[in-house]
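thoughts on my protein:
***
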Amino acid sequence: MEELSTLNVEGISTILEQSHWIVQIFIVSLFALTIDLLQRRTLNKLIVRAEKNTKNLWDEAILRAMRRPISLIIWITSIAFSAKIAQSASPAMIFEAIDPLRDVGVISSITWFLIRISKEGQRAYIDGRKQKDQMIDESMVDSINRLIRSSIIITSSLVMLQTLGYSISGVLAFGGLSGMVVGFAAKDLLANLFGGLMIHLDRPFSLGDWIRSPDQNIEGTVEQIGWRLTKVRTFDKRPLYIPNATFSNISVENPQRMSHRRIKETIGIRYDDASKMDQIIIKVKGMLRTHPEIDNSQTLIVNFNHFSPSSLDFFIYTFTKTTNWVRFHEIKQDVLLKIVEIIEAEGAEIAFPTSTLHLKGAENFEH
């Protein structure tokens, strides 16, 4: 019996010695779970506080961005540490990849955090501008953010390759050669991509702007600015898709950014009313100077300037305060109707094309 008891004790001791690494892995996993729960609770409380502070939206963006990547780093570290414990108990070839895989996992977590903070930062920036009632071109912000995310992904990929033992110089050389081949094969695509970049940098127009080109049949409202195409909705509601490279070779007019709108009209009165021209011009000029929708700080001209075949012409040249297209035509209509009233009040008439036939000896003609 004593020998049997001794054997049992020795067997249990042997089992415990052989399986102590399992207990260690369990403790490491339990510790990682505890740390993860604590950081989640802490960040959730901080996010709730940050949401109440509407003045600074960046705190909330950073906290939201780091929550999941931190959990990933905790569990990657825990798994790597557990694998080290298992390696000490049972050496195997697979455990030789622990260190590089752990480094790749950490780099991936940092990359994920940077991508998330770029997205959250974009949202915080747009919301902050809207809270202050400031204009914001969301398509431009989104395009810049995409460029930043692409740079983050490319950089992290190169760092991962270096971590795994690959030569970055070779990869860059191969990438340069591949880039030349792709560049020749897709020069039109690259031209459109660079055209889109120039649109976002130069900003000749923004979303919602009314644009037109005197060089091509392009006129409408900008609905979307992509990296390859710009979508314009014409006034008959048809979508017009324009390659971005086109804007590098044409001139674009942006009426949306006009400071004023111009009224330029020529009005003719009869030759029989030549003596009334001076008073008509004085009164029309006075009417424009007192009109509440006419900007007197801009050029204002009313002058008799042309002997036409059937009329004496004077012209008006002035600017409205509004740039709204519909409101401008309402003001222009009001100005023209007032000019008609002035002409009629002076006993004159607006001329229309007429011809006068003089017959020689008509005075001796008897009916």
